[in-house]
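Annex B. Sample input.
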Amino acid sequence: MKRGKKNLPAGQAAIEFIIVSVVIFFFLFLLLSMGIVFVVASYLDYATFMAARTYKTGAFQQSSQERAAREVFNGYFDKVNGIARNPQLQFVRTDPNSVRTEGLIASWDIELFYLPPFFVGNNVPPSTIRLTSEAHLGRDPSSAECQGFFSNFASRLGVGEEFAEIMEDNGC
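Annex B, continued. Sample output.
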């Protein structure tokens, strides 16, 4: 029996090349997509930390601390908007009695790998996953909370509430 190209059906090499190329490109795109997911997840984990850091800083009211933290997170998120979608920022407290245990939970959607538009139904790709990041740095009491604490403290001691009202910084 002779071996050689004469025994092969016409076009077999082209078909094998196409099949192997499709598999190789699938794994190449999967690897690139996973790299993008890991980089964006690390970036948004840092954004969550920076938002928690901003949330920790003192302000006159807790609502202004939350607003500043949202602005910081959204500033970072805007740079990856389109790759990651639907950001949600939630302020939580692990111990209900202590502001020192407060932090944030950030979540967002990201596509695990890109699918062409004709594979996507209902505008939600089946490869979309939800990722979450947490940062608990605590929250410093706001100036209003601090003044309220010292007013109560002064009234219990009978010293007078004037010194709490003249505080210029967050003395807590």
